[in-house]
Amino acid sequence: MYVRGVGPRVATLLEAKGIRTAEDLLYHLPFRYEDRQHPRALDELKAGETASVIGEIRSAGLVRTKRQPIFEIALGQGAFTIKCMWFNGGYLQGRLRVGQTIALFGRIEASRSTRNLKMIQPQFELLPEAGSDDMTRLLEVGRITPVYESLGGAQLASRWQRKVIFQLLEGIRGNVPECLPEAMLERLGFPGREQALAEAHFPPEGTATDALEAAQTAAQRRLIFEELFYLELGLELKRRRGREQRGIAFRTTDAAREAIRAILPFHPTAAQKRALGEIVADMREAHPMRRLLQGDVGSGKTIVALQAMVVAMENGYQTALMAPTEILATQHYLAARKLLGRQKYRIALLTGSVDADAKRVLRRQMEQGEVQLVIGTHALIEENVEFARLGLVVVDEQHRFGVMQRFRLMKKPNEAEPDVLVMTATPIPRTLALTLYGDLDTSVLDDLPPGRTPIATRRMEAERAGEVWEFVRAQVTSGRQAYIVYPVIEGTKDDQQELDFAQDEAGENLPAKTVEVAKPRRGRPATLFTAEKAAAKVAAKAGPKARMELRSATEMFEQLRAGPFSELRVGLLHGRLDADEKEVVMRRFQRGETDVLVATTVVEVGVDVPNATVMVVDHAERFGLAQLHQLRGRVGRGNAKSYCILMTGERVSAEAEQRLEAMVATQNGFELAELDLKMRGPGEFFGTRQAGLPGFRVVNLIRDKELLEVAKQEATCFVSAPDPEVTETERRRVWEHLKQSWQRRYGLMEAG
Ligand code: ADP
Ligand code: MG
Question: What domain range is 100 assigned to?
Fold first, then answer.
C-alpha cells in the first residue's frame, strides 16, 4: 500500500527498523505522550519530577566552559522562567532562538546556587509558529501529542511520524479490517481495531496522560491484547497439534511401578510425586508428551526425569537425556549408573569427546536397540544417531540449546513420536513461561526436599578475603568442601573471556571455548555470543582498565594453593581444560578427594556435590542474578548448613548492588527470576534472541503481564470452547489473521 510521505529512500530506512508495511507503521505506537492542551505551569514544578512544559525562549546562547560548550536557554511563561542546558550543545546554536515556542520534556532539577529550577538535556520540540500549515498545528499544539521513537535521524523524527501516521489513518478510515470477534471485544470492553489505532496515536481530548503512559487506555490495551492473543492462539494450536500426532501409549505395569520405586533413594517430595504423576499421565496417552518441568535449583528434577525414563524403558523403549555441558552429562551419567545400577538397563554416555571408534560402536548399539538409556550433550543430535525405538527424550537445562533444537533428536521415520520432557535450570517468570513455552504443558516443583536449611548468604568486601579463607579452612577441617568462583579464567594477560556454553546465532551449542569479547574494534561494540554470560559482558563493558584488576581463576588458584590453602587439596576447573581433564577434576571433587575447587562458571549449572557447603563468588558484582542463584544452588544440597559468600571488588554499580541485595534477601528462585526479568528485560533474560522470544510490536511483557493471562485464557477458550456468539465468518477471519501474523513473525514456522 502506498503511504504518503514514504518514498523508496525512506522505505529503506523504515525497513531497517522492521517496518515494512503500512500496518507495521500503524503498530509503531508512541512511546510517550505530551499533554500540550494542559501544559504544566512553571511555578508548580517540583525538583525531581519528570515533566513536559511549554514556553517561550527568552534567551539562548552558547556558554563556553573549560570542559565543553553548553547551550543554555531561559524558558519563560509569564513572570516565571526555568533554565535549560545541553552539554556540547553547539549544534543548537541558531536552531533555538529567542521568541520561539518550545515544548520540553525531562527531569526538573534543583539548582545549587539559586532557588530556580533547571532542566538538563531535556528532549525538545519547537512548536509550529502561527504561519505553519494547519495540519502541523493540529497535530502538535493544543492536544495530547504522541511522541515517537525516532526511526532514523532527524528526518524521521516524531514530527514526521505524526504526520505520516495521521494521514495514513485518515486514508484508511472506515476500511480497517477487524481481526477480533465482536463478542470478545464487547466482553473485554475493548474498542474496534480502527478506533484503537486512531486513539492510541491521537488520544481524544480528556484522556488521562497517566493512563496513556502506563498503556492502560482501552485503545492501547486492545492493541496489546490483540498481539498477545494471536501469540497465545498460535502456541495453543501448536500445543494441540503436537498432541494430535501419533505417540506412544506407555503402560504403567506393576513391574514399572516397582522399578520406579526401587530407584528412589529417598521419599519423594509432594511436588515430585505430583510432577511424576502428571508426566506419567501424559506418557500413558497415545499422543506425544510435550511437557516442561520447572523447579528451583535443587528441587530434585533429575530423579523425576529418571523415573519417567524408567517407565519408558520398562515398556521396552529407549530413552535419551541431553545436557548442556560435558560436565553435566557426565554427572547425570554417573548418577544414573548409581541409581539404576541394580536394574538391567544399559546406559551409555555420548559427548563430543568420546573418540570416533567408541562413537561408532555406540551408534550401532543405539540403532540396534542394545542401549536403553543414552546420556549426552549436543553431540547426541549432531551424530545423526538413529534410535531403534526411541520413547522418551529429556532435555535438561533447556534454554542453553535454543528452542528449535529440542525436537531434533531423531527417531525412525515410521515410529511414533517420542515423548519430550524439557527441564529448566532455574525458574522462569510466568510471563516468559507463557510466551516461550506456551506450546508445552507445565509441571512445577514448588518445594524442596526435606532437611534443607536456608543457605546463609553474605556480602563481603574483597579486602576481607582473609576472613573468608579462614572460614573455608574451618569448614574443610570439619569435613566439608568449598567452591570458589571467578568471572574469568585469566584476567590480565589477554582479552579472553570464559564462554563455555556460547551459542551462536543459529542456536547451536558450541563446544566449550573462549571467545574474544573485549576491545571493541573500530568503534563497533563488542559482541557476545550469549548475554547469559553477564559477567563477561560487564567485564567487556568496563573496558580494559577494569579488566586489569579482575582476579581470575588461574591466578587465584596459584595464590590460594601457595598461601591460605597450602595445607588443603585445591583443584582448578575451567572451560579451557580439555574434556578429560575436566572430568578428572570434577570426579575428584565429587569423591571428596579435593577440598576446594577454584572454578569459573563451568560449575554454574547442575553440578551436584552434596558435601560442598561453601560457595564463594568473587567479583560477585559481575554476575547476573540467574547466575548467582545457580551458583548458590551448588551448595545446600545436603543436610549440613551451607554458606554463600558474595565477595565484591571496589566498584559496584547500582544495578549490581540491587542484585546482591536480592540475593541476600531471598532464596526463592521464582522471586529472583521475576526480579531478574524486571531488571534486565525479556531479551536479556535468556541471553539470546534465538531463545525464541517473539519480537513484539506493542507488547511489553513486564508491563503487560495481566493482559497476557487474559489473552492466554481467551486463546484457549477460542480453540476449545467456541463462543456461540462468534460467527463463522469471524472465526475464519481469526484463523486467516493468525496465519499471516504467525508467518510474518516466525517465518518458516507454519500455522494451522
Ligand atoms: P535440580 O532440580 O537442581 O536438578 P537435583 O535433581 O540435582 O536438583 O537434586 C538436588 C539434590 O537433592 C540431589 O542431591 C538429589 O539427590 C537430592 N534429592 C532430590 N530429591 C530428593 C528427595 N525427595 N529427598 C532428598 N533428597 C533429594
Ligand atoms: Mg538438574
Answer: 44-130
Whether ligand 1 lies within 6 angstroms of the CB of 269 is answered as yes
- Asked if residue 466 belongs to a domain, the reply is yes
- What is the whole-number distance in angstroms between the Cα of residue 272 and the centre of ligand 1? 10
pLDDT under 50: residue ranges of the chain: 400-406, 493-540, 542-547, 688-691, 748-752
338 C-alpha to center of ligand 2: Å?
16
Q: Looking at the structure, tell me whether residues 388 and 537 fall in a common domain.
A: no
Residue nearest atom 4 in ligand 1 by C-alpha distance: 301
Q: Return the pLDDT at 111.
A: 79
Task: Give a yes or no: residue 287 inside a domain.
Answer: yes
Closest ligand 1 atom, CA of 445? Answer: 2
Q: What is the pLDDT of residues 630-680, one digit of tens each?
A: 899 899 888 889 999 999 987 888 889 999 999 999 999 889 988 888 887
Query: Do residue 330 and residue 360 come from a single domain?
Result: yes
Q: Is 638 in the pocket of ligand 1 (CB under 6 A)?
A: no
Hey, which of 306, 424, 481, 608 would you mutate to test ligand 1's pocket, going by the most ligand atoms within 8 Å of its Cβ?
608
Q: Is the CB of 303 under 6 A from ligand 1?
A: yes
Same domain, 408 and 536: no
DSSP code string of 379-422: HHHHTT---SSEEEEEESSGGGT-GGGGG-S---TTSPPPEEEE
Count of structural domains, the chain = 3
Asked if residues 321 and 394 have their Cβ atoms less than 8 Å apart, the reply is yes
Task: Mark whether 417 and 309 lie in a shared domain.
Answer: yes
Both 120 and 71 in one domain: the answer is yes
pTM over 0.85: no
Q: Residue 713: inside a domain, yes or no?
A: no
DSSP per residue over 206-271, as a string?
T--HHHHHTT-SHHHHHHHHHHHHHHHHHHHHHHHHHHHS--------HHHHHHHHHH-SSPPPHH
Same domain flag for 373 and 475: no
